[in-house]
Amino acid sequence: MVDHKWIGKAYGPLKYEIGREKMREYASAAKDERPIYHDEEFSRGTKYGDIIGMPNFAAVYALRGAGMVLLDPEVKLNLAMLVHGAQEFEWFTVVKPNDIIVETGKIADIYEKGNLDFVVYEGEAKNQRDELVCRSRATFIIRGG
Amino acid sequence: MTELTSLKYDDIQVGQEVPAFTHKFDRMDAIIYAGASGDFNPIHTNPFFAKEVAMLPDVIAHGLFNMALLGKTVVDWIGDPGYLKKLSCQFRGMVIPEQTVIFKGKVREKLEGNLVVLDVWAEKDDGSEVLKGGEATVYLP
User: Do A51 and A43 meet the contact criterion of CB atoms below 8 Å apart?
Assistant: First the structure.
């Protein structure tokens, strides 16, 4: 069982600089070759003016706090028995190359159901203009309690 | 100016289906996704660890990889990635190499402010669940 005293434990601020090739690498890994993610010339002719990050690229720039929870030596989650149970993303604006993202997050909840432990992380990512970019909520499940 | 979206809010009907996207998962997908995402949990990449330590049938696809393909499925339909406002899902079924997953969506309701809410999910070609209870909210002009 995961100790409930870690509910509220905060992570960040975590700074992440959006890299052009990293955006492309993520989109390609997610089987998405649409030009707005890859092709500057095409993108210049759109309202965005440059390539934009695939929305799910938030898994990289907005979930680093969740990664810290998984490896937190105080919280001590059993990674071999851990699976990602659920995920929510809410987007408020797009990301472009060289954006500086700052993520802050916390363990929002810890609870049990049967022999499963649930750990919930909530994070918020803002850009260099202090605009909210993405809110994320990740639920992890540890089998075997 | 190149428009990315050809759909119009007024033309959308409740119950309308999003064109499905089908993908056969390959173990290289998980290795490439690990590098792109930074999630190097060996249950996704190391068959020995997956089977002998984590007691899984084989390496499994990252949940966030499956979710990214679900996001792609919605964006394929709406055209403009900036119009995807929310995406959520539960990771239910594990996907092992050579299994085929079908990503689907259907319009649940139309809201004020040109927002459309969809049920989104993914299932294997044998009908078993992969992503369940998903919801996407999109803006359409």
Answer: yes
Cβ of residue A71 closer than 8 Å to a chain B Cβ = no
Residues of B in contact with A131 (CB under 8 A): none
Q: How far is A5 from chain B (nearest CA, A)?
A: 26
User: CATH for A4-18+52-143?
Assistant: 3.10.129.10
Q: Please check whether residue B2 lies inside any domain of the structure.
A: no
Residue A144, pLDDT above cutoff 80: no
Whether the complex's predicted ipTM is more than 0.90 is answered with: yes
H or E stretch covering B66:
helix B63-78
- Chain B touched by A34 (CB under 8 Å): yes
pLDDT, tens digit (0-9, with 9 covering 90-100), for B74-127: 999 999 999 999 999 999 999 999 999 999 999 999 999 999 999 999 999 999
Chain A residues in contact with B3 (beta carbon < 8 A): 46
A30 to B65: CB separation less than 8 angstroms, yes or no: yes
Taking the C-alpha atoms of residue A61 and residue B68, their distance in angstroms, rounded to an integer, is: 14
